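Hi V.,

Quick status before I head out on leave. The structure for the redesign project is tokenized and pasted below; the design run finished overnight.
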């Protein structure tokens, strides 16, 4: 049995099962009745937006449809069929078959999965003062075995709230955004300088309209690491990833984050301590990846910067100067931010560039607004973003179709009723974002990439945009990620036209985050007088 377990727990290529993208079954249609006519999306139904219950007597928990009550058999089936890498498609298929709510048993975990905004709203209204989400036990076990402190991502209760409030002041408040926005803007401009140099050296065509087709993902990962995770925002310094010889340590850090993300999902449903004692290769790979991440996220980096001229000491410097959070907890939280801020920024940017490239009409509409706003803002990045709401719409539309995390989880503190089923307090409930974002019962023409759908008053209401979570437990790095994504898109659209050779849907895989199976290649063409729009270094 031990031998079979070891053989199963390996990381290798997974064949993606063919998954139908059919519309919801008649069960969903019966759950959705009266039209609401919300701004921007007509034809939605009352249960979609507001109703978590239903007609008739409330039914018991055991009556909720499920995918099989034996979690270990389900887990073996997941491994055999390669479902972990296509978990988002599996969820969509299961909702199509069973309706808008179902139970999932997987290994040692069980959950209730939902996707309609009305049910999600009821869930969040029952989260309490100290919201809890599913603990990533492999991460927690690594901290415990290595004697590392835990950051807010792995904490719960009053201790979580105290630390989170201190971090919010440095990364979530509008005053914090004003401090780090110019720094992210500088990194975004440097990315465009790098891209422009590549086009001039390796591209083809006339000087004012030179083109280059490339996979931008390596540079997008460097942008995310340079911008947020080891530079200005967290540590108050640049690490030179846009130089001709980026450091080997930084490249290894990116590799370690990707390895950590890829090895997490299979470990979620088994006792990590058991795997560690069995010396299973998958656990060893996971722990080693985290060890590399902690090594690279050294707290000494970037605090003392004599003569650097940097007026913002980074989140690290701010926290140390305030003296309200012990050094070990500062290190734990910055390591989590550093590990969580690279792929979760770089991957949405890949999807956004792809969608803009294959939707040239949308691209030109956003570009026009960006250019007008930049001109009026006179180079002020905050004013430029405020004057170009389609940039935020582009980000939200990208995350609707390609949510970084495919679920948001909560444990309700009281019994609740969802789709006329009683859910006991303390049950793990997951809002499933991939099928939510592609449901025609929630969005009009969900297959269309339309940033303007988020532009009207109330268009973000109704628990339809949840890529960064919700409430007190939303992503702590949200403001940084939103700023990075929008600023880079702003500068790319000012300077380059985007094209793709094929407009076919991009294949995706799930490795704790949703990402392309193969990074899309984009053709970047310099716009007229783009040399003048690029700011000098």
């Amino acid at each position: 049995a031990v031998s079979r377990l070891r053989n199963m727990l390996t990381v290798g290529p997974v064949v993606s099962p063919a998954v139908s993208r059919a519309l919801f079954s008649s069960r969903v249609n019966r759950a959705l009745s009266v039209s609401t006519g919300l701004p921007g999306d007509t034809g939605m139904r009352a249960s979609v937006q507001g109703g978590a219950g239903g007609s008739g007597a409330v039914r018991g928990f055991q009556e909720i449809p499920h995918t099989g009550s034996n979690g270990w058999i389900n887990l073996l089936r997941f491994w055999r069929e390669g479902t972990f890498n296509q978990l988002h498609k599996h969820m969509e298929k299961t909702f199509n078959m069973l309706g808008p709510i179902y139970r999932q048993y997987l290994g040692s975990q069980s959950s209730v999965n939902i996707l309609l905004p009305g049910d999600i709203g009821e869930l969040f209204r029952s989260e309490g003062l100290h919201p809890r989400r599913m603990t990533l036990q492999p991460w927690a076990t690594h901290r415990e075995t290595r004697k590392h402190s835990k950051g807010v991502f792995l904490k719960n209760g009053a201790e979580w709230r105290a630390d989170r409030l201190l971090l919010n002041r440095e990364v979530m408040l509008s005053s914090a955004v004003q401090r780090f926005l110019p720094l992210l803007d500088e990194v975004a401009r440097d990315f465009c300088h790098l891209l422009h140099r590549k086009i001039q050296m390796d591209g083809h065509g006339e000087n004012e309209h030179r083109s280059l087709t490339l996979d931008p993902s390596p540079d997008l990962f460097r942008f995310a690491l340079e911008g947020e995770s080891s530079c200005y925002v967290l540590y108050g310094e640049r690490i030179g990833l846009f130089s001709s010889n980026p450091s080997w340590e930084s490249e290894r850090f990116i590799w370690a984050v990707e390895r950590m993300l890829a090895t997490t999902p299979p470990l979620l449903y088994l006792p990590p301590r058991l795997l560690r004692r069995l010396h299973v290769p998958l656990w060893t790979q996971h722990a080693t990846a985290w060890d590399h991440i902690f090594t690279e996220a050294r707290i000494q980096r970037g605090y003392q910067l004599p003569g650097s001229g940097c007026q913002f000491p980074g989140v690290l410097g701010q926290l140390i100067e305030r003296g309200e959070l012990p050094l070990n907890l500062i290190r734990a939280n910055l390591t989590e931010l550093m590990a969580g801020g690279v792929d979760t920024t770089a991957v949405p940017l890949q999807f956004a560039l792809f969608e803009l490239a294959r939707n040239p009409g949308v691209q030109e509409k956003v570009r026009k607004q960006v250019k007008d706003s930049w001109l009026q803002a006179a180079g002020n990045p905050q004013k430029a973003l405020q004057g170009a709401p389609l940039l935020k719409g582009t980000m939200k539309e990208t995350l609707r179709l390609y949510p970084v995390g495919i679920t948001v989880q909560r444990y309700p503190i009281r019994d609740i009723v969802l789709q006329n089923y009683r859910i006991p307090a303390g049950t793990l409930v997951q809002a499933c974002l991939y099928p939510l974002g592609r449901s025609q019962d929630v969005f009009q023409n969900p297959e269309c990439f339309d940033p303007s759908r988020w532009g009207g008053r109330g268009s973000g209401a109704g628990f339809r945009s949840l890529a960064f979570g919700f409430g007190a437990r939303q992503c702590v790095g949200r403001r940084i990620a939103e700023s990075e994504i929008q600023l880079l898109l702003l500068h790319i659209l000012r300077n380059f036209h985007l094209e793709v050779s094929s407009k076919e849907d991009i294949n995706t895989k799930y490795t704790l985050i949703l990402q392309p199976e193969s990074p899309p290649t984009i053709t970047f063409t310099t716009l007229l007088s783009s040399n003048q729009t690029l700011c000098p270094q």
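Above is the designed sequence. The chain has a mean pLDDT of 84.

G. will cover questions while I'm gone.

Best,
W.
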